[in-house]
UniProtKB/TrEMBL annotation, chain A:
<feature type="transmembrane region" description="Helical">
    <location>
        <begin position="56"/>
        <end position="75"/>
    </location>
</feature>
<dbReference type="GO" id="GO:0070765">
    <property type="term" value="C:gamma-secretase complex"/>
</dbReference>
<comment type="similarity">
    <text>Belongs to the APH-1 family.</text>
</comment>
<feature type="transmembrane region" description="Helical">
    <location>
        <begin position="202"/>
        <end position="221"/>
    </location>
</feature>
<feature type="transmembrane region" description="Helical">
    <location>
        <begin position="17"/>
        <end position="41"/>
    </location>
</feature>
<keyword id="KW-0914">Notch signaling pathway</keyword>
<feature type="transmembrane region" description="Helical">
    <location>
        <begin position="175"/>
        <end position="196"/>
    </location>
</feature>
<comment type="function">
    <text>Potential subunit of the gamma-secretase complex, an endoprotease complex that catalyzes the intramembrane cleavage of integral proteins such as Notch receptors.</text>
</comment>
<feature type="transmembrane region" description="Helical">
    <location>
        <begin position="140"/>
        <end position="163"/>
    </location>
</feature>
TrEMBL record, chain B:
<dbReference type="GO" id="GO:0000139">
    <property type="term" value="C:Golgi membrane"/>
</dbReference>
<dbReference type="GO" id="GO:0042500">
    <property type="term" value="F:aspartic endopeptidase activity, intramembrane cleaving"/>
</dbReference>
<keyword id="KW-1133">Transmembrane helix</keyword>
<dbReference type="InterPro" id="IPR042524">
    <property type="entry name" value="Presenilin_C"/>
</dbReference>
<feature type="transmembrane region" description="Helical">
    <location>
        <begin position="424"/>
        <end position="443"/>
    </location>
</feature>
<dbReference type="GO" id="GO:0035556">
    <property type="term" value="P:intracellular signal transduction"/>
</dbReference>
<feature type="compositionally biased region" description="Polar residues">
    <location>
        <begin position="339"/>
        <end position="350"/>
    </location>
</feature>
<feature type="transmembrane region" description="Helical">
    <location>
        <begin position="255"/>
        <end position="274"/>
    </location>
</feature>
<feature type="transmembrane region" description="Helical">
    <location>
        <begin position="398"/>
        <end position="418"/>
    </location>
</feature>
Amino acid sequence: PAFGLFIFTIARDPLRIIILIAGAFFWLVSLLLSSLIWFIAVKASDPQDERLQKGLLIFGVMFSVLLQEAFRFLYYKLLRKAIEGLVALSEDGCSPISIQQMAYVAGVGFGLMSGAFSMINLLADALGPGTVGIHGDSQLYFLTSAFMTMVLIFLHTFWGILFFHGCEHRRWWEIAAVVIMHLIVSGSSFCNPLYVGSLVPSYLLMAAAAAWAYLLSGGSAQNLRRFLLCKC
Amino acid sequence: MITFMNNSDSEEEPCNERTSLMSAESPPVPSYQDGLQASEAGEAQAHRKRRAGSRGPNNIAGGEMSGSGVPVRESALENEEEELTLKYGAKHVIMLFVPVTLCMIVVVATIKSVRFYTEKNGQLIYTPFSEDTPSVGQRLLNSVLNTIIMISVIIVMTVFLVLLYKYRCYKFIHGWLILSSLMLLFLFTYIYLGEVLKTYNVAMDYPTLFIVIWNFGAVGMICIHWKGPLQLQQAYLIMISALMALVFIKYLPEWSAWVILGAISIYDLMAVLCPKGPLRMLVETAQERNEPIFPALIYSSAMMWTVGMAKPDTAARGPSQQRWDAAEDGREHLRSPSHAESQMSETRSPVPTRPVTSLEELEEEERGVKLGLGDFIFYSVLVGKAAATASGDWNTTLACFVAILIGLCLTLLLLAVFKKALPALPISITFGLIFYFSTDNLVRPFMDTLASHQLYI
């Protein structure tokens, strides 16, 4: 689905592609820094201690989430400046791409990159021979991973929109809500392999974020109805 | 492997790629003189104004205007220019993204599937020091020595080509280019096809193979050196870049490859920007003579219209801008692998990236951006090496890919700002190297641990 989003909405306009790749880049840098921190922590600690390792992992995850959001903010700043530049360039004083579109594209960029990093090794392994869950782990590993990744990609997209909107209008609570949601989603993945604990809340949150982002982008129930009715 | 001796000197000419935005100092055709100058001035002003205000990443300025200083400009045309430039700015970046991506995809796909390119079957004679040494220090020393040899060969080749160009030995250069592309198209394709067929266990008889390769090679020669549909030419250039990159990946020992990548981007930087750098001299010479650079060495993303195509209309609206930036740099690179293939010629050319504009009044400008083939090759070498040797597999490859694309973006942005020949390698390769090493060593354990617990960040 994420690729579908990409093809239908982004691939047409070269500006969006650039923003997308830049978004992916920012996510990557945040991942790099967070893994650096985690790596240092692990090296500095005792590798035998299971609980400590787990604790460090949790710490690493949380820290990474925070870093991702921080980088989203940095990206927002960069895009603001870029928009000013574009406005100055264009002849009729309005930029060829609005901040909401940028928010959307940035969100997709983040999402794609995080999804790719989560899934792609899994996919490559899935091509080869093997049995899922042979050591007593869940047999649904691939499926749940796929769903989780998808929900995460969508969530990143929505968070992008919400986040940028919050920054635009200076509503700090929106930004805080995004961060908290991200933390909740990541935290819920700790419940794995008890999949109920992680997938269900994530999907609920995604639905909530979707609705919120939709409303923020100017949609409404009426628009939705009209859109659906017009189509059929 | 096919081995045959070839006594012709194997010369390597590294082509350094640069993206350069050349300003045409001399208007191509005298009849456009006035109009051109006027438009130049106008555009110059427009560009200056734009430059002052913008930091838009998409402003790959089309016209380099070495304004003649005549401040005559209708604002209408100016605005039109601006808008067109803006619209095309991002487009240029994408026009370069797509082929670079395609080349990388081809290389990565081949590396992942065909075992041949990851086996170590010897080294080029340009990297004589082996890396199978017991100690780390020795290995490092060997790779540094390899790099020094390689870079000095490249420098020699470059200087040689510059001299040839300066003294107008065009025939020689053309012959050399043709020979090298001949070898690339036929020999390497043959090897490549052979290996791919082996991997997928598909049988093919020699006559069919002969026909296929003959067609491929002949059409390729025509397309690259003469005329042909633009897309076909682009496709061929991408393919030969990929083939060359695959050869590099196979024949360069590991540490040497990384050190060479780093060294060559430094060399590129120096060769293009230093006043006495060979590349720069080549560019300037070509500019003075107002000539196009050899078509086999650069990738151009749009049709290059010749001077005669545009109609100037000085009276009514402003002249068509024909900017023919002739500064392109071509360098050929010939290499021979150690188990003696005769001559590998790799053509890489420095890239003057310059939008070539032939504007017909209100018609769309056919602005193209040019990138040297060597750029393609080294980007693909980096990504291919990442795919081949990284234990983090796809993550590392993906990270390097994004890093290179961002580097390309930044380079093009700088191009728009500086408007002169710029090296395309340094930024991208630096990012790529940083990301490769950090992703491989830092991110991979993190992601692996996360994946094994199925945690998501």
